[in-house]
Amino acid sequence: MIGRDEFTFKLPSGLRFAANRYVESEPANADGGLTFIFAHCASAHKEQWELTIETLFGLAKGKNCEAWALDCQSHGASAELNAGLLGAHNPIGIEEYASMLHWFVENGPIRAERCVAVGHSSSTSAWVLACTLFPVAPLRALVLIEPVLISFPDHQDLIDLGKVRVKAVSTRRDKWESPDELAAWMKRRHPWTTWDPRIFDIHLESLTPYRHGFKWTDTDVGRVLTPKCSTAQESRLYTHEPHVRAGELLHTICGQVPVHAIFAESADFVSLKARNAICDVSAGRTMASISIIQRTGHLAIQEQPKATAVAIFNAIFPTKAHL
Question: Quick one: average pLDDT of 141-157?
């Protein structure tokens, strides 16, 4: 079991973000443990990291680790914190996400030199951009899971995938009359049919009704359930320009911080061509390690949270672990 404490931080922009701190229920007495900082992908939220964090703590037992998971300003609990401001604010992009991550490393209750930054999908680009901001944070390591950085001249395939995601989000249903109707609708559709059942339950957490992924919204036709992250906010994270910029800057980060790349066995989103380009040593993008999570696709955190934890552990600690 892990303990969870909830925090709220205010950024210089006036926007706030929610963060959870996780520690072992019986923490070790040793000093000098690592702090893992987890950032989520588009449309997700910080609690989707919890099974990965729990497994990671089990593997690293006695190493005195802690973990923080953060909600992007437009996602999860942060979206509710900023409800009165987001309407008048341009949709939050990767650049703003990066600024939030950088602010937390610089101003949060942590020591940057002990921090391992972990990103998945869209947040990998946010972490890379965060590492280029001044002052440069002396991170211990950077872990990129299924990175979507665009790092080669012929990058039209990833740009097209982003456009497909925007179209899919714009036409996706976003109102349900009851929790049962919502759960039944999701269980019949991709990507939720591939999720670990526990991650699915976390997404529909009911300690406070549907607190993580959804909220009750009053409309002209009555009270309905809607995603906390709006279509416009989710779509903004798929815009390709900041992912191209992150790809252009990755080589500088590789020269400053050990960067670990973790890919899914299925190249259902990040193609083999893109992977080879991201890890192109001739372009200065030298990875400290490259690994594969078996039996999963792009949404590895949602599909294989335990295997994801093993991949993170094996990248950071010299003693290799297995499920």
Answer: 84
